[in-house]
Amino acid sequence: MSEPLWDALFGRTAAVEATDSRAWLKALCDVEAALAVACARTGLVEPADADAVAAACAKAATVDLHEIGDQAVAGGSPVIPLVAMLRDQAGSAAAAVHRGATSQDILDTAAMLVTHRALAAVIDASTEADGAAARLARTHRDHAMIGRTLLQPAVPTTFGAVAAGWGEGLDRSLRSLRTARSGVAAQLGGPAGTMAGWYPHGPAVRAAFAAELGLTDPGVVWHTERSRIAELAAALGSACGVFEKIATDIVLLAQAEIGEVSEAEPGGSSAMAHKRNPIAAVTARAGAMQAPGLVSTLVSAMAAELQRGAGPWHAEWPALTALLRTTGGAARRLADSLTGLRVDTEATARNLAAVADTGVGLDVGHAGDLVDHYLAGRAE
Amino acid sequence: MSEPLWDALFGRTAAVEATDSRAWLKALCDVEAALAVACARTGLVEPADADAVAAACAKAATVDLHEIGDQAVAGGSPVIPLVAMLRDQAGSAAAAVHRGATSQDILDTAAMLVTHRALAAVIDASTEADGAAARLARTHRDHAMIGRTLLQPAVPTTFGAVAAGWGEGLDRSLRSLRTARSGVAAQLGGPAGTMAGWYPHGPAVRAAFAAELGLTDPGVVWHTERSRIAELAAALGSACGVFEKIATDIVLLAQAEIGEVSEAEPGGSSAMAHKRNPIAAVTARAGAMQAPGLVSTLVSAMAAELQRGAGPWHAEWPALTALLRTTGGAARRLADSLTGLRVDTEATARNLAAVADTGVGLDVGHAGDLVDHYLAGRAE
Amino acid sequence: MSEPLWDALFGRTAAVEATDSRAWLKALCDVEAALAVACARTGLVEPADADAVAAACAKAATVDLHEIGDQAVAGGSPVIPLVAMLRDQAGSAAAAVHRGATSQDILDTAAMLVTHRALAAVIDASTEADGAAARLARTHRDHAMIGRTLLQPAVPTTFGAVAAGWGEGLDRSLRSLRTARSGVAAQLGGPAGTMAGWYPHGPAVRAAFAAELGLTDPGVVWHTERSRIAELAAALGSACGVFEKIATDIVLLAQAEIGEVSEAEPGGSSAMAHKRNPIAAVTARAGAMQAPGLVSTLVSAMAAELQRGAGPWHAEWPALTALLRTTGGAARRLADSLTGLRVDTEATARNLAAVADTGVGLDVGHAGDLVDHYLAGRAE
Amino acid sequence: MSEPLWDALFGRTAAVEATDSRAWLKALCDVEAALAVACARTGLVEPADADAVAAACAKAATVDLHEIGDQAVAGGSPVIPLVAMLRDQAGSAAAAVHRGATSQDILDTAAMLVTHRALAAVIDASTEADGAAARLARTHRDHAMIGRTLLQPAVPTTFGAVAAGWGEGLDRSLRSLRTARSGVAAQLGGPAGTMAGWYPHGPAVRAAFAAELGLTDPGVVWHTERSRIAELAAALGSACGVFEKIATDIVLLAQAEIGEVSEAEPGGSSAMAHKRNPIAAVTARAGAMQAPGLVSTLVSAMAAELQRGAGPWHAEWPALTALLRTTGGAARRLADSLTGLRVDTEATARNLAAVADTGVGLDVGHAGDLVDHYLAGRAE
């Protein structure tokens, strides 16, 4: 774990494991191995040499991270020392290492592999949160409560409709995240993006390379056409927005004076024994709040110069890593909050009655239909 | 025009016209009229009353903007004085005005109508830019030039491949923007989002309402599930990233020491007669650079509290307006730059030769295939 | 007014007036006039010619904005057509127009003049808000209420201490804004920033120029050293953060279930007659929420290339304008909310008692001292 | 080190060491120890008990980080398990642990201690960069080169003036960073910010506490008045803007076709033997580009609710940590680039001559004075 004092608190443990230095190194090695295999498939490399490269890659994935990291400074990329190490270890197969590729091919594809793996953690936790929202919507389908607009009592709704609204957001996010994950693409272009090193087999090598890694064949070279990254960022950022909205609602409904929900395991205080903080929702909010700034960084980084960005590209690595982590963490903490969320029916009745006393009608219209719509249409 | 000193310079004229106060007021009036019509379709309102409301709306769209604007302060929404005005004008049909709706239904739907209209300007200019990229790619399919990575000479590519890379980005943006535009949805939920005011015809009223306005029926109430807005923001932000990348490349290739491109109408200087600034690209960059911050604002604003946001919702209005404007402007200026961009074949040859002298090979691999791929797959 | 449907609602009227196209044109003209006067002071220009230039500037400030705006496109700057117009009008004094300057000298200085004027609106409204906070702190110095942490009841504080906390933030902002305003600097460097056109009188011309405009002499050329802009952005952004914190507190304390404060003129609804929305605070929040994204845009724009930015510089104009407006508007709406904020002593007593019943002590420690500290140290 | 594959590459090693989980735990322990000492100074705690607490703190600073981290989840704060551990270890002095404090007192003060320490790394590297800029300015005081505006040749300047411009930015940043560092303040308010637990000695305890830690006594409780954090963010963000500007200039001037500068140790490529990438500047840019988004996150987080933020506060921890790291890293890589930057006098002469041939004059005006101004006024 990268930050043992903080990762569990922010729910980031799984997302950090999928994106830490070791995970990145393993992805880089997997990518170099897949390239050799793909080259072998199209006859550019001898199968035995590809095997030798793959063996060297498997070994390199376990080396001391500082060794690669310290040597990465000179060229601004961990791929350069990694390739040197692989060539050294591959012996007579050295020419089959990194065949035709440029550092960005390896780094971009590794980034996508890391993303593909980290998205699994994000999606798992989101799915758990969605399941909890569905249970709440079903259980409280006809449980009337006061709706609140601009944080003032409005007219009635149901807790089911509120939970269905949360769930519709989670579902929409899940669809986006799954679509994003299934579209995560490999990168293979060579030094100036012309695939010259594999000519005339470039597209075939790229297809085999992507297939070997379980990634999508992009059909193009996207060294400096970064809308794929922006789309991933958008899906993650929008998911965080959905999480923050729900977590904020929980924090608001959990206020003692409202008291309509409470977390199963509220947090205590170092100073106040009576505190019952909705701490999972609070930390989900905190994690989700990191996203807008990170999304803006990744949109800004789209302006990669000419055939390879002189800074914007490198800027993606920490920003994408941080965005995957914080989204995974926020999803995790939100799932913790929603699973086991307790609804206080006395409180909802009391608060509703207080408004009804002012003459507001109790009609909840299509609230039940909203629940049914959500439950029928949930992402599988 | 909203800022006559600046709008033309930033290419925003069309996008501003589609989003200015008058355009918003017209959209608000169109929405109120469509609601009355939709209610009439389901029998909730008399057809004659719907006609009277529509007539009042047409008239209200032309009133003095300050009159509505000044009265909008008290309730924090221009819908409140507008509804009062419409009821006053509708006479005996007053009860058919704003039937069952809440301010957010009208404002959200108007925002989507404004977005739908403004996106047309964005898409038009983007399409023009894409057409120019395609011409450049076709013309220069086999025109070799040096590729540059980290702003240093790398290995050869072709101008066609470079232009195809620009075009692939534009195409991808166009697809996103068109998908976004075709999915722009109406909003209809009533005060607490239960569609109580139209029960049991809520879904039918919403469908008719959306159809009347040429918008999508969302199937849900999204008062505080704002991923639709975040997705629009993402499509616009990503388009700006694509624009900025291309504009940056133009500015870089137009440097006198490189000299590979020039704009048809370079900008002069107030002080230097010899200046030939690629000013359309420069202002496209400046417009595109507004986007990341605005995207982050809109992602942040997703955290709308409970049944209507107490600030986050209102925060969307200026941010979405500004994002539509700046994206439309950047697209416009980029189209200006690309249309008529001149490529200096002597310069590309000279710069390529300088690198070839150092022993770099001249192989451009699949560069021509990249051009063909782009031209074959362009968004229509 | 720039957006008559929205500006009053967001409290931006005064800030928009100080930053609209006319205000910018007037500032540009004031700056050209000041330059001529400054050149005359050092003998570079004949006094009579400076007078002629000043007269031409006064006239140009009133021309049709579209005329300048449309001609600004070609060179990417309104200064180029303005200078042409001034030279035309100045007749025999034409050579005294724009003497030694570059467009950026004029635009940057005009931007600072606009900022200086708009900051007055921001500071006025902030001062009014601070005055209201001080009255609340004084009035409620010893008025106990429950403190709330993580939105859960904690231990007691006083309303006075809460208001003093608001006031300390406002005071700190006011100090920053006043310091920023008093440091707003002129710009004078000439085409490549060497002040060659005024040699050997460059520093003297710059000093006279700044003095003529009531701005600070920066001592340097800051064409591409933009920390001054970032510092302005930071002061405005931090002020918005302070405003948003206070407005959020008001919205939270005004919740019906808490009921400890209410606005003097709460907002109604287009659909719910009983609504009493704290609409001034809500719109203050919405305005303040625009700031973080705009601050990030202005920090990003610091990376101006070489001797004049090819996009980052131009990107400052809309972002700085928008930030001044939204900060001014948020300040205005917050002042509206705080002035006349009503505190419900029954509600604070009831909520405090509910917690006291759980055994929490009622000691408020140094709460009164916090009030006294704030009142004694307020910015004047 | 936190991310051994990346930290050296981005120059973050020192900044990460100052901000990693161990550094944070040590800071938390230092703060708890200082509180006991401060309480002892004012007689609230027995000196022997304070000694026992300090001993327990020294020991706790070395415990397994996962132990604290895992227990931090329940309450959303590492302070809660830390206090439990300290009370356990302090034996009969248990009551002297965390006397009167709330978690936020400890966490905020620890954050400021971590910031104070990390700023030393930022300032050291910035000072080194400034020294290098000064050497370049002095050496090249009268070395003419062409100025470039909008990336097009303009009129002459000198390399000295360009370097002085870089230096003025670095100097301004250094002043801001040093001012920020010297103002880093302790936090002490107790559960609801009334300092009730130390009454009537609150201000005295806070003063002793701050002095013990070498921090500033803020004079106020700033639990939810976060302009201090925004100001730190602004100083760091503005520094990054200065770094990015300089690094961008280096990357641009190092383009082969311009060739006016080169790094002492340019980076190679995994695929192209001839590459000489200005990799230190490139990675400095990448690091600096993280800042605008992080600044926006920290400005957004100012809106902490009532007496303790329910998410905004927690959101500061990862964002401030990331901002300190990336600023420290960008400063380090920029210093690497500037120290040993080589200026090619043939290239500057050649590029200048090419413009002079078009009839542009060679006058550099006050360029030398700009150098002298910078060298005379440098921050010490």
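qc> Chain C touches chain B through 77 residues (CB under 8 Å).
qc> done
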